[in-house]
Amino acid sequence: MSSAPEPTRRRTVYIETYGCQMNVSDSELMYGTLAAQGYDAVDAPDGADVILVNTCAIRENAEQRVIGRLGDLKRYQRRDTVFGVTGCMAQRLGPRLLEQASHVSLVVGPDGYRALPQLIARAQDGERDVFTTFDLEEHYAAITPRRFDGVKAWIPVQRGCDYRCTYCIVPYTRGPERSRALADCVAEVREVVAQGLTEVVLLGQTVNSWTDGTHDFADLVRAVGAVDGIRRVRFTSPHPNDFSDRVIEALASVDAVCEHVHLPMQSGSTRTLKRMLRRYTREEFFACVEKLRAAIPGLGLTTDIIVGFPGERDEDFAETLSAVREIGFDDAFMFKFSMREGTPATRLPAEDLVADDVMADRFETLVATVRSGAREKNLTLLGAEREILIEKGARKGELLQGRTRDFKTVLIPGDDRLIGQYLHVVLTGTTGSTFTGRVLEATPTRASLPIA
Ligand code: SAH
Ligand code: SF4
Ligand code: F3S
């Protein structure tokens, strides 16, 4: 009598993710690739067979954090643990990472994840590899991502970037822009809806420039919005120059598209924008905001702003502040300029560099200005009714965190069974940035009714 074969031990992989949503989405693809090879995902590095750090290179401090963390992770090394660095720092530093970290045996850029199983196998044989070739065809077709968010799905529709903003490392870490085929994007949306998710976020560095040669972003949004069962469509990040009238019209007319646009401004000074090679003026940015607001009533508008770009004078910064006040953003991600190796900004004259203390002062002023504008706006929303989608438990107490279509965070009491549900609430309080809400018994609005 033959005995049953010993079940082979399932191997485990731990991925730690830094940076933007694109990296979060890439980590899901990496988990998916490895799951197909018999790996289980684990949520702690302790004991994992493979430890990957999916990195971001956008600012110096983002990189410093990862370098520090790589050192910390070394203590989880057993005889056969494979350590890998993936993502934008891997692409940027390549072999330099192998030199800096002796426990790392694998450095893989954003277009190399398909090869992970083979690279890991080689690492187990003692090889140390660097894989940083760009692949303009790569959209990770036929790889099923392993998703961890049970409420919304990241859908990468475009990879890379063809802009050349002078401060930015992304075109060098992610390569040229390429759009994924419309049918593939829509198929992925259908799949996630079939799995019970009702919100998708279309991802790309300049996502509204998406085109497959025949269709534009307007067509993509319409096709995604027409998928049966989809309730919320978001997208990030659009570039102001790529908002054609057709695209705005599509955003305004597709019911599922949420009334929120994250529109990176970077600076309110035309002179600085020019030096950043953003390809729009202050006036053109304002005009874009006006068009969006005219087309989409109740639009939530958030942005990214950099202070201290080389050559930024007091009067330029004052223009950023006035733009923030005049436009009235709902929120902003704000950054101190960080010089990135190899970017065009490195060629600006040294005397243009903004001193650290000046940069710190401007940053503080900007944060206060953005916060007070947001607070003012949010106070006017008290008493308003909104549909929220419950995303997760809140960090505080027995609360749940929901999101309005216009991207406000609302905390309500309730238990985890409500995660993934849509509720109709009235906004009862605000910290200035987030809200508390009370669930209404009243009939849900049309927007919150399930799509038949
Ligand atoms: N593709 C997006 C931005 C991606 S990077 C866009 O064009 O809008 C996210 C944000 O990081 C940028 O919007 C910018 O505000 C900030 N950023 C990028 N490079 C930076 C640098 N070198 N220093 C400081 N902030 C930077
Ligand atoms: Fe960077 Fe500009 Fe491309 Fe955005 S559009 S990723 S800021 S180069
Ligand atoms: Fe960072 Fe790369 Fe995203 S540099 S912000 S992880 S594209």
Major sheet description:
6 strands, parallel
Kindly provide the radius of gyration, computed on alpha-carbon positions and rounded to a whole number of angstroms. 23 Å
Mean pLDDT score, rounded?
A: 94
Low-confidence stretches: 442-452
The order of strands across the largest sheet is 2-1-3-4-5-6
Secondary-structure-derived class? alpha/beta
CATH structural architecture of the largest domain: Alpha-Beta Horseshoe
Ligands bound here? Answer: S-adenosyl-L-homocysteine, iron/sulfur cluster, FE3-S4 cluster
Extended strand count: 19
Strand fraction band? 15-25%
Per CATH, what is the topology of the largest domain? pyruvate-formate lyase- activating enzyme
From the N-terminal CA to the C-terminal CA, the straight-line distance is: 58 Å
- Give the proportion of residues in helices: 25-40%
Domains (count): 3
Give the CATH level 1 class of the largest domain. Alpha Beta
Q: CATH homologous superfamily of the largest domain, by name?
A: tm_1862 like domain
Give the overall shape, derived from the CA principal axes: globular
Q: How many DSSP H or I helices?
A: 13
